[in-house]
Amino acid sequence: METLFGLIVILAVLIGTAFSVIGVIGFIRLPDVYTRLHATGKVSVFGVVLLLLAGLFWTPVSPGKDIVLIGLLLLAAPVASHAIASAAYRLGIPPQQLMRNDLAEVVEKENDPTPQG
Amino acid sequence: MIETWVEWTLIFSLAVHIVLTGVCVWRVWRGQNVIDRLIGADLVGTLALAVLVLIALIERTSIYFDVALGLAALGFMASIVLAKYLADQRVL
After folding, report:
1. Nearest residue to A40 (alpha-carbon basis) of B86, B10, B33, B35
2. Window 7-36 of A, Cβ < 8 Å to B
3. Residue B22 and residue B29: Cα distance in Å, rounded?
4. Which ipTM score applies to this complex?
5. Per the CB < 8 Å rule, is B57 touching A7?
6. pTM of this structure
7. Contact B38, A93 (CB under 8 A)
8. Which residue in B25, B18, B29 sits closest to B55, CA to CA?
9. Are B58 and B10 in contact (CB under 8 A)?
């Protein structure tokens, strides 16, 4: 039983570390702010959540904390990335090679002071 | 016998995460614009969270998960408030 848990822990930790490394490499190498945000999302979701899954098997006491932390992370990471991306767009950082731009009208509507309705 | 393998992978992963945190801190120091630094700060928070979880795994106690829970909540909140401040230069 113990060896099974041990194998699971080894696999989860290695895959989690691999995702963290890939995320940070993406954070450094990618050209644009928005693509960098895409890379950092991986670290916080896959890297840490897999480590927590390893924690579920390895630490003997109270698995409840791990599940709460996994839930919090899966909720928090996308929201934070979304907030930073919208802040970057409103700051005027030009996204490169843009296929579609749905945010342009929203920002115009915000900026022009004419009262609607 | 499996414990030694698990111990070695945990220590290896901890070392890798510490190196990654260092790289991120250097990147925050050298960021081109303010959003890069904000992303870097968020990333440093996440990697610190990973280091905490790894320490919990190495020590086999679950006390560190409380610290990690607090760090996750606060780090996330900090990113949101900073992003909002940067977006329209006024807080709340």
Report:
1. B35
2. 7, 9-10, 13-14, 16-17, 20-21, 23-24, 27-28, 33, 36
3. 11
4. 0.85
5. no
6. 0.86
7. no
8. B18
9. yes
> What is the 3-class SS of B6-53, one letter each residue?
HHHHHHHHHHHHHHHHHHHHHHHHCCCCHHHHHHHHHHHHHHHHHHHH
CA distances for B71 relative to A3, A70, B46, angstroms: 31, 13, 9
Q: By the CB < 8 Å criterion, does A49 face chain B?
A: no
Give me the count of residues in chain A.
117
Report the C-alpha gap between A62 and A89 in whole angstroms. 42
CATH class of the domain comprising A2-111: mainly alpha
- Distances in whole angstroms, Cα of residue A114 to Cα of each of A38, A77, A90, A109, B87: 35, 35, 19, 9, 20
Tell me the per-residue pLDDT of B32-80, one tens digit each, with 9 for 90 and over.
Answer: 888 888 889 888 999 999 999 899 888 888 788 888 889 988 988 898 8
Element housing A16 (H / E): helix A2-29
Distance CA B46, CA A48 (A): 8
